[in-house]
Design brief:
two-stranded antiparallel sheet, Rossmann fold, ten-stranded mixed sheet, 278 residues, 8 helices, alpha/beta
């Protein structure tokens, strides 16, 4: 049995995160670890909400804190109710220290971490991906599935490949976690800045992917990866999941650096599977 850690903001519950976690868990008898990040510095209110006629009001603060506590408790109860209805094994962790540190620690003891691309862990609006997501991806100790705000069942696998080991490692990790995915169509996508360039180690990657997927096609694009790949992925069906290599400032390939991943998260509403090669 594998363990999925699904990260939740207890004050702004992500139904899509739970839906994706339940789909993955149901397909392969996984257990869902509901990680409710209750950072003691994070509330649904700001300092102006605590101000009364005599300045900062202790009574107002206590009422606001109780309201947040009630919201978190209801969110956890909803998570437990849905998991029970779907007959999925689950546990609940209430992490009350610094959210980023807690989630990184949870990822150490997880086979996969699922988190919504719109999570911010604060009550201010931030463009996606927020700093919280970027920091977590850079330090995560498990593969991460960054999911969109709206759930769509997985029906197609898009494999971003650049010939570097990190892209193959991500695919190996994905295959190991989700052996059931082999029944779905798969597409290996590579971008070259030179027209008619050969697919890097084309025979080897084709042979490997065909060991796992019967319905396979290969697509080679030409141009700047950050432009060409984004335009191509925007046309993908909602049921596709994108598999890519490490989220790293030091990545050699322009297909697998944090700038590319950030752009994908910014504009795409597709699940993005990211695995670091240690």
């Amino acid at each position: 049995m594998k363990k999925i850690s699904a990260a939740f903001d207890g004050l702004k519950f992500s139904q899509a995160t739970l839906d994706y976690a339940i789909e993955l868990a149901s397909r392969d008898h996984m257990v869902i670890n509901g990680v409710f990040l209750e950072d003691f510095l994070y509330h649904s209110f700001d300092i102006f909400d605590m101000v009364g006629s005599q300045g900062v009001s202790g009574d107002k603060l206590n009422r606001l804190l109780r309201k947040d506590r009630t919201t978190c408790d209801r969110t956890i109860a909803l998570f437990e109710k849905i998991c029970a209805e779907k007959q999925v094994s689950y546990v609940v962790h209430k992490d009350k220290s610094f959210a980023i540190n807690e989630l990184i620690k949870e990822s150490i003891y997880s086979d996969l971490t699922v988190i919504n691309v719109v999570e911010t862990l604060n009550h201010y609006h931030q463009e996606r991906p927020a700093p919280f997501i970027k920091e977590f991806l850079a330090s995560a100790q498990s593969p991460v599935l960054v999911v969109p705000p709206v759930y769509h069942s997985v029906k197609r696998i898009i494999i971003l490949y650049d010939g570097h080991p990190s892209s193959v490692f991500a695919l190996k990790t994905f295959n190991s976690l989700f052996p059931w995915a082999k029944k779905y169509p798969a597409e290996v996508v590579c971008v070259s800045q030179r027209p008619l360039a050969l697919l890097p180690d084309g025979n080897l990657i084709g042979e490997y992917v065909r060991c796992h997927y019967d319905d396979l096609v290969t697509t080679q694009l030409t141009g700047d990866p950050e432009d060409v790949l984004l335009d191509w992925l925007k046309k993908a069906d909602p049921g596709a999941v994108v598999v890519m290599g490490a989220y790293s400032r030091g990545a050699v390939s322009r297909m697998f650096n944090n700038s590319m991943a950030n752009k994908l998260m910014e504009v795409l509403d597709l699940p993005l599977f990211i695995a670091h090669s240690k």
